[in-house]
Design goal:
The protein is of the alpha/beta class. Helices cover 42% and strands 16% of the residues. The structure holds cobalamin and iron/sulfur cluster (SF4).
Length: 478
């Protein structure tokens, strides 16, 4: 019997993001299957890892982002090592790619895959099968006799070589999501200094052909029997010609779908009315826009390449065409002052006034991510860089501890702004929050909402006892 490759999706907590398809693993599984390997996807957000069948396994792959997902992944890896110590443990994803050597130092890591995983996973599978050396495989860091060996980086692949996602590998009942996640391009030419893209994708944008995207949409729609696609590309709209072909194709093929994507405000402002009408006609419902800050000075510091007025006019343009602008904001950047934060709050208010459809998915507290230029700034300002996988997994998740250069009082202020933004403008997005929202629906959340609306209206951010209680409650589940 063919040896099995198990790809594991760990969770952040038992629930966060659990509706999302394991899209980091789907293209790797599809590619390995295409090459004749026997692949399984195990979603540890839905099943206890103690249910893993570890018989006849060629290797186990784990995917992780920076943060508490690492903690869960380490727990899973420890369990596997304890049961079947000979199974090679291969780690991939954004965090191991950005810190490959530090990742490889962990005893529960045998091989780190840097960057895109499809071809590397395939070459690893062949090498494990033949029990041959790994030293010719590009894009890995691995251990040999306790020595850490690095191979040269792997060039970016042609995305058209990736087959459609192998949905049949998934337990359909786990993903009751309203939306189908789809990746059609990778990378972004932007140079925002807080974003992983410069280090990970080297500002290199590449894509699947429009025809392939349309074929995949058809397959996904038929399989999931749903019609809302969340395109998760960093920047779907880089090649306007391709987007036009996709939009026209959706209409010509009568796919009858709705979709959302992430875009930059300056792109939206450049679009002609005809182009945006075509997008709307093809089913575009929401555009995710990185507004980040209402302060020109901060936007320049983070090299966003847009001004506050660009965000506002993009919001107005979306409104005029009946497309919902979902804008994300941040606070707590190095060097930011209360005045800057007030400008962000004013920008949100201006967007709300200009657009009935406007939504924001929160005012996130700046978190320094490894590999980004702003990570260096944060370290220079006193942020203590985690030194091991355990440290990254243990404490690294949406907490004010990552902006130690501000006074405790100011951090509390930022925390209040962020939590209020969260409560006011976002919808519950995971099962536990839904449960919380369900139980407290008519009492706490409603009271909190009124309280927070009043606070926001009068810009009263002091004595936030009720917000701290809410944050503590939520933190228990992260
Ligand atoms: C969809 C998405 C989400 C979804 C689902 C995420 C998930 N699957 O867990 C939701 C909304 C839940 C989410 C939440 C968050 N996200 Co998010 N998200 C994304 C987004 C837009 C797409 C992710 C994706 O699926 N990409 C497609 C896959 C194919 O790419 P990939 O993961 O890189 O995988 C490739 C390689 O890395 C490698 N690989 C990956 N895993 C493995 C495993 C093995 C064994 C091998 C061999 C190879 C391999 O091969 C893959 C194919 O080539 C990315 C941006 C981006 N472009 O990646 C941000 C991104 C991943 N998110 C990010 C962040 C910060 C978050 C949050 C912390 C936000 C917050 N403040 O709450 C949370 C944390 C969630 C978590 N799981 O820890 C950052 C991560 C930065 C970092 N250093 O890790 C990103 C990069 C955004 C950004 N520009 O900064 N996110
Ligand atoms: S535009 Fe978005 S994806 Fe591109 S570099 Fe900036 S933050 Fe990253």
């Amino acid at each position: 019997m063919k040896k099995r490759i198990i790809l594991i999706q760990p969770g952040v907590s038992q629930s966060f993001g659990c509706k999302y398809l394991p899209i980091s693993l789907m293209p790797i599984a599809g590619y390995l299957q295409k090459k004749g390997f026997n692949v399984e996807i195990f979603d540890a957000r839905h099943e206890s890892y103690e249910k893993l069948n570890l018989n006849n396994v060629l290797f186990v792959g784990l995917t992780v982002l920076t943060g508490s997902q690492i903690k869960h992944a380490l727990e899973i890896a420890e369990y596997i090592r304890g049961k079947e110590p000979k199974i090679p443990l291969v780690w991939g994803g954004i965090h191991p790619s950005l810190l490959p050597e530090q990742t490889a130092q962990n005893a529960l890591v045998d091989v780190v895959v840097k960057g895109e995983g499809e071809i590397t996973a395939y070459e690893l599978a062949k090498a494990f099968l033949k029990q041959s050396s790994l030293n010719k495989i590009k894009g890995i860091v691995y251990k040999k006799n306790n020595e850490i060996i690095k191979t040269p980086d792997r060039p970016f692949m042609n995305l058209n070589d990736i087959p459609p996602y192998p949905y049949k590998l998934l337990n359909k009942s786990y993903y009751e999501a309203e939306t189908i996640g789809l990746q059609t391009s990778r990378g972004c030419p932007g140079h925002c200094t807080y974003c992983f893209n410069m280090a990970y994708n080297k500002r290199f944008w590449r894509c699947k052909k429009a025809e392939a995207v349309l074929d995949e949409m058809k397959i996904a729609k038929t399989f999931w029997e749903k019609n809302f696609f969340a395109i998760c590309d960093d920047n779907f709209f880089v090649d306007q010609n391709r987007v036009q072909k996709v939009a026209e194709g959706i209409i010509e093929r009568k796919l009858n779908i709705n979709w959302s994507g992430m875009c930059r405000a300056d792109y939206i402002n450049r679009w002609s009315d005809d182009f945006i009408k075509l997008l709307k006609k093809s089913g575009l419902k929401n555009l995710g826009i990185g507004g980040e800050s209402g302060s020109k000075r901060i936007l320049e510091y983070i090299q966003k390449g847009v001004k506050p007025e660009d965000t506002l006019s993009a919001v107005k343009k979306c409104e005029a065409h009946g497309i919902r602008p979902i804008v994300s904001f941040m606070c707590g950047f190095p060097g930011e002052t209360k005045e800057d934060v007030k400008k962000t709050i004013s920008l949100i208010d201006a967007c709300m006034k200009s657009s009935r459809l406007f939504e924001t998915n929160g005012i996130f507290l700046f978190t320094p991510y490894p590999g980004t230029p702003m990570f260096e700034d944060a370290v220079n300002l006193g942020f203590k860089e985690p030194k091991s996988m355990e440290e990254w997994g243990d404490k690294y998740f949406g907490d004010q501890a990552y902006i130690p250069w501000y006074s405790k009082k100011y951090r509390k202020y930022l925390q209040s702004v962020s939590t209020m933004g969260w409560l006011l403008f976002t919808k519950p997005n995971c099962q536990l929050e839904w449960k919380l929202a369900y139980f407290l629906k008519f009492i706490l959340r409603a009271l909190l909402f009124i309280d927070v609306r009043l606070r926001w209206k009068f810009k009263f951010f002091v004595f936030p006892i009720e917000l701290r209680a809410y944050e503590n409650y939520m933190r228990r589940y992260r």
